[in-house]
Amino acid sequence: MADDRPAPGSHDRSTPSGTLETSSATLFEAMLAARDAPGGNVDSGDRSDVRSTARYGFYRALMSGTVLLPVPPNHFEEARAALEAAVNDEQEVEISVMLARDPDGQPVNVLFGSTAALAAWSPVGSANLPLPARIAFSNLAANGLPAILDPAGPIPYRFEPEEVAALAAGQLPGTREPLFADIRRGSLIVRLPGPETIELERALAASLRETAVRAAYLVESETGGEARLLLGLVGDGEASAMVDVPAGTDVVWLEEPLLSNVRAVADPFFQRRG
Predict the structure, then answer these.
(1) Which pLDDT score is estimated for 12?
(2) pLDDT for 159-211, tens place per residue?
(3) Phi-psi category of 170—alpha, beta or left, where left has phi over 0 and alpha has psi -120 to 50?
(4) Domain spans in the chain, listed from the N-terminal domain onward
(5) 202-235 tens-digit pLDDT
(6) SS3 letters for the chain?
(7) How far are the Cα atoms of 23, 178, 233 from residue 270, in angstroms, in the given order?
(8) Using CA atoms, how far apart are residues 177 and 161, in angstroms rounded to an integer?
(9) CB atoms within 10 A of CB 244
(10) How many angstroms separate the CA atoms of 149 and 159, rounded?
(11) CATH classification for the domain delimited by 189-271, as one of 3.30.420, 3.30.300, 3.40.1350, 3.40.50
């Protein structure tokens, strides 16, 4: 079925979605961060922490990526045809999806962040359709039901109907705030830096060992014909670091889609084990 998957991000090329594998890894890290945040529980039922960095990161990672919707076997071709007919997110996409029942016996939507999570739940013979999450949630919001992400694990999460509707509208649930801030779009080229940065990487790795930074990348970025070094850091909302970098170096916390772009060309020069 891999050959039948729509190209990631094909429905709105200005808002790319990563491959399912990249999306799954990013989403799992975000869910772990939300679950393990002080006083946090990614599916505690308490949405009072909606503005917390960890939960906000979970929502953003989810809606930046790709999810799997289970499709009845006799509806797969119909669903794929409907998806291929949509050229952007402004068009309505009607797809027949499988429903499940929650512990109280009530109907509920189900979706999955990885093939492993789907395989742990999927009834024999069911098909699935990989979709950019923003399209999947627009489809799920139409029936007004709650939705459960990865009902068989590794970390189940139940979205209440109002949560599904907010995400479908591009809003942070429980608020009217946009999930993604409007940004000025432009072309950014990311490539490996030259060998002269090896000593800089060693010095930076030594200074990062005493921090909560999980990984660090050093690349060269170019925009508008201007090339600069870019130090990209990966960590949860509580992480902080003080680094000494050459003048003209950009230091950023990497989030999608830039994180995937950087990972595509460079390996981390620093990565915390365990």
Answers:
(1) 37
(2) 999 999 999 999 999 888 888 765 444 567 889 998 899 999 999 999 999 89
(3) left
(4) 2-168, 189-271
(5) 999 999 998 989 999 999 998 877 889 999 999 8
(6) CHHHCCCCCCCCCCCCCCCHHHHHHHHHHHHHHHHHCCCCCCCCCCCCCCCCHHHHHHHHHHHHCEEEEEECHHHHHHHHHHHHHCCCCCCCCCCCCCEEECCCCCEEEEEECCHHHHHHHCCCCCEEEEEEHHHHHHHHHCCCCCEEECCCCCCCEEECHHHHHHHHCCECCCCCCECCCCCCCCCCEEECCCHHHHHHHHHHHHHHCCCCCCEEEEEEEEECCEEEEEEEEECCCCCCCCCCCCCCCEEEECCCCHHHHHHHHCCCCEECCC
(7) 22, 33, 9
(8) 18
(9) 9
(10) 8
(11) 3.30.300
- Assigned token pair, 157: 């999460």
